[in-house]
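Proteins fold. Shown next:

***
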Amino acid sequence: MSTAIAVLAALMSAVCFGVASVAQQYAASKAPAGESLRPGLLLDLARRPLWVAGMGLTVVSFVMQGVALAFGPLVLVQPVAATDLVFALPLLAWRRQERLTPVEWTGIVCTAGGVAAFLAVLPPGSAGAPTPSLVAWLPAFLCVGGIVAVLAPLGLRTAGKLRAGLYAVSAAVLFSLLDSLTKSTTGRIRADGAGALRHWEPYAMVGVGITALILSQSSFQAGSLAISLPVIDTLEPIGAVVIGVAVFDEHLAASPVAVLTQAIAGGVAVVGIVLLARSPLARTP
């Protein structure tokens, strides 16, 4: 029952984030380029009704992801939550009154099928520690912080697709850390209720979330969804799964055959994301 709730909530999170990304990217593309990577970008976007609506859906997506993580491990929830492009592309097609091409349908099938096959061979007892110690978190914070500290300033000195890609990578690794902090925070809430506010995770979650939001919106502003979403959809679940294994002691496949199956399934899902990213629908605002 817990697994079913986790998967359903993760799917709802993916739907909401996919729709939100379409709305936010369109609004962010109209913002002045000089506001890139600055808190002022959020203030400018907050005056745009379409972006505010997208932000509301982002909040709903985050809540749904929190519910999913309360009932399932990162290695289960994050691959499902990363299917948002599967929902975003049909929405773009509907908005522009176009039909999906065979290549786009192939991308959708590969992405959904790859994720489903990856999850099918997860061992039943894949959940690990619900609230890791601060010492266990240090490598994750150092790795993510180092990546962002290098790539975000590089993005400021570039433009166009490269800037969007650098910001997207930075946002993706921060989102993977945010997912993991959300997992730990929900574990605290389930164990201590309001007493969770006595721990550091909720406050770290807010700080990381705001930073990730600025970077993701800066990426949306700098280029099309064809650049930002595939990077985020690929790197965020990979990062979250790595943190789940390294920090939460979660488990992936239990046999060589299952490991090979997961590797192939992950590759198929990535191919699907790339096919979706090459769609003309995702290449224009």
Remarks:
- The radius of gyration is 18 Å.
- The chain has twelve helices and no strands.
